[in-house]
Structure formats: C-alpha cells, structure tokens
Amino acid sequence: MASTIVEARGVTKDFGSIQAVKGVDLSIAAGELFGLIGHNGAGKSTLFKMMLGLIPVTRGEIRLDGESVTGPRFRDTRRKIGYLPENVVLYDNLTGIETLYFFADLKAVPRGQCAALLEKVGLAHAAGRRVREYSKGMRQRLGFAQALLGKPRLLFLDEPTTGLDPAAIRDFYRILRELRDEGVTMVLTSHILAEIQERVDRLAIMEGGTIRATGTVQSLREAMNLPLTLEIAGGAGLREQVARVLEGLAIEGIDDSGHSLHIRLPREAKMPALARLATLGETLRDLHVREPSLEDVFFGYRT
C-alpha cells in the first residue's frame, strides 16, 4: 500500500471573522494524481497555500512527506515541491529561457534543465521571445515548466489548464501521466469537471471550506446512487416493446428523442434491465450505458 505523502488533520483557516477552511481532513498517497474540485470560494486555493506553507494554518496540522509545514525541516521538503498558481505572473521583459533561468537560480537548480523543460511543454520555438509576446496559453505552459524545475516529487497545480487549447490540454495530461509513472504525486484543481473525470485517480469535493466527499469518480457515483441512463436505438415500435419488457422494474422514466430512447433507472436495476432488453434481439440497433458525469456527482453533493 502506497505511503501517505500529503496529510491534513483538522485544518482550519480564519481570515478575521471569515472561516475559509473548516476542519479539513485529507490524505493523499504517494504517486497519486489527485483532484480537488469545488466552486469559486470553496477554499481550494487557500488549502493549497497552507499546504505549501505560504500562509499559516489557524488550527490543525499539515504534513508533507512526513514533515510538518511549520517544522524546522520543512524548508528541505519544500525543495521537492513544484507549484503552479492559478494566476501566473511573469516578468514581461524576460524571454522564455531567461524566465526559467531566473527561477532555476532561485531554486538552486542547474540551468541545464531549462531548455529541455521548454521542449517538454512545447515552448522550445519561443525560448528567445519576450514573455510580453506570449499568449495566455503560452504563459501557462511557461508557468508549468517553472513548476517542473528541480524534478519535484510533489506537484500542486491550481487550475493548470487555464488558457490552454484542446491540443495543449491533451499534451499537459500526457505529461502528468508520464510524471505519475515516475512516481510523482500531483494535486490539481479544476473548474472543468469533464476534463478531469477520467484522468484523476481520486478526488475530493470541497464546499464551503469543508471536504464533502473523497474517493474515485466511480465510488462517488455509487455513493450518491444517481440514476443511470440507457440510450438505445432500434426499429419501429421500439418504445412499446421496451416498455413491455421492462414492466415491473423500477424505471424512473423513458424519454423519446425521435432517434433513440433514453431510459433513466437506478443503478441496481441496470443488469436486470440489460438482460430483459437483450431479449429484443435484432430490434435493438445500438445501446449505450451513460454513467452520471462528475458534474452530476458534484451538484449532487452540493444539494
């Protein structure tokens, strides 16, 4: 079983009378790609900053790789951490390669890593251009390259795909998969739930400064017990035949789009329904099982 690399126990953060984070307990295993989702103001970025030691914890404790973020040895632990903030702020007058040199010097990392990292994030062609000429997506990729300096074992990525086009997003997650294969632990936030639902190992849903639920996407689906949808296409009279074979099952509804039927049913009725639909034989031309999306799960936990 993988060891725990990120551990938060009873973590609370007060800003005057406002409690931004309220008694959060969270454990993340080494080598996980972990998602932290929630609406704006849920406390995600505040939790990130406390984990990085950038702002103090009001109450509770956070340990990274076994070291308390307030402990005397955390400075050494921090050298193993990379961080991409939600809003990347860079020096416009520096070139891309000069920007990485600057951060490499700050981190006491050899400058020899910089050119390879620009190549890795798809910016080798713009290494000599001033950052003021970079698009938002290029700035985001440069910020990602900065986070990868020093070959960190733990990465915090706050809304990392902001400004990236679909091809760049695909490349970004390819890099994350490669890093995970190398044993790097990654914690990321995202507003784009459809983007991460098939890409993270586990995730936590954050609401009002608290963790509402933690688990795999599938385990959260099952815990919410949201209905599934069977989408089927077939020949004439399909609706009547489907209604007949499914009679007596706990079907929540059947919608007819004109091209296909959408049957909503509880999870426990899925296999009995599929067995009965199979008896229709060639009357069925196609069938898809639609699981609740991560967005469905997220809003289910918010209600």
Question: What can you tell me about this protein's structure?
Answer:
There is one protein chain. The chain contains 11 helices and 14 strands. The chain is an alpha/beta fold and 303 residues long. It has 2 domains: 4-222, Rossmann fold, CATH 3.40.50; 226-291, YebC, transcriptional regulation domain (Alpha-Beta Plaits), CATH 3.30.70. Strands 6-7-8-3-9-10 form a 6-stranded mixed beta sheet, sandwiched between helices. A 4-stranded antiparallel beta sheet has the order 2-1-4-5, with helices on one face. Strands 12-13-11-14 form a 4-stranded antiparallel beta sheet, covered by helices on one side. A hairpin with a 4-residue loop joins strand 12 and strand 13. The longest helix has 16 residues, at 166-181. The chain is globular, with a radius of gyration of 24 Å. The chain starts with a strand and ends with a helix.
Percent helix range: 25-40%
**Which architecture of the largest domain per CATH?**
3-Layer(aba) Sandwich
What composes the largest sheet? 6 strands, mixed
How many domains comprise the coordinates?
2
Number of strands: 14
Produce a short descriptive summary.
This protein has 303 residues and is of the alpha/beta class. It is 32% helix and 28% strand. It has 11 helices and 14 strands.
Produce the secondary structure layout.
Layout (H helix, E strand, L loop, with lengths): L3 E12 L2 E12 L3 E5 L6 H8 L7 E6 L2 E2 L5 H5 L2 E4 L11 H11 L7 H7 L15 H13 L5 E5 L7 H16 L3 E5 L3 H4 L5 E6 L2 E6 L1 H8 L3 E7 L3 H8 L7 E4 L4 E5 L4 H9 L5 E7 L3 H9 L1
Parallel strand pairs: 3-8, 3-9, 6-7, 7-8
Antiparallel strand pairs: 1-2, 1-4, 4-5, 9-10, 11-13, 11-14, 12-13
Helix pairs in contact: 4-5, 8-11
